[in-house]
Amino acid sequence: MIQGEGNKHAPFELVHKRKFNLKEGFFLSLIRTLGFTGAVILIIILLFVALNGVKALSWDFITKPPIESMTKGGILPVIVGTILLTIICMVVIIPIGVTTAIFLAEYSKPGFLLNSVNMSIYTLAGVPSVVFGLFGLSVFVITFNFGMSLLAGSFTLAVMILPYIISTSEEAIKAVPYSFREASLACGTTKWQTIWKVVLPTALPGILTGAILGTAKVAGETAPIMFTAAAFFTPGIPKSVFEPVMALPYHIYVLATAGTHIEQTRPIQYGTALTLIILVLGMNLIGIILRSKQRVKKAW
Amino acid sequence: MVEINQTKYIFEIKKFSVFYGDFMAVKEATINIESNKVTAMIGPSGCGKTTLLRALNRMNDLIVTCRPKGQALFHGIDINDKDTDVIELRRRVGMVFQKPNPFPSSIYENVAYGPKVRGIKKRSQLDDIVENALVRAAIWDEVKDKLNESGLSLSGGQMQRLCIARSLAQEPEVLLFDEPTSALDPISTAKIEELIVSLKKLITIVIVTHNMQQAARISDYTAFMYLGEMIEFGDTDKIFVRPKNKLTEDYITGRFG
Question: Could you count the other beta carbons within 10 Å of the beta carbon of residue A69?
Answer without folding.
Answer: 12
